[in-house]
Amino acid sequence: MPKVKVCFICGVIDKESDKSLFYIPLGKLEEWQKIIAKPGLTRASRLCEAHFEKSEIHKGTQVGNDFVPATRNRLLTKNVVPTKNLAGNLKTD
Ligand SMILES: [Zn+2]
Hints:
single chain, mainly beta, two-stranded antiparallel sheet, 1 helix, 31% strand, binds zinc ion, zinc-finger, metal-binding, THAP-type domain-containing protein, THAP_Znf, DNA binding
């Protein structure tokens, strides 16, 4: 059975979606709990990419004219905090 992707704020994400989920960086749980209004954030919680600036997410590497996607998206820095769509009212872009 495929693993269900669950974002702490959005809920279940369509498994066909290419949205990436991110764990909370080590030592950042308390800080993130203050930022995210919804109670219950834990170390096991994950947030999807809708809550981060696109510039904070590493999706791959530009090599000349080609974009080589990373095998696994990751957050660029340990200090990144979620800034977008924190109330769960996702707007599509
Ligand atoms: Zn989300």
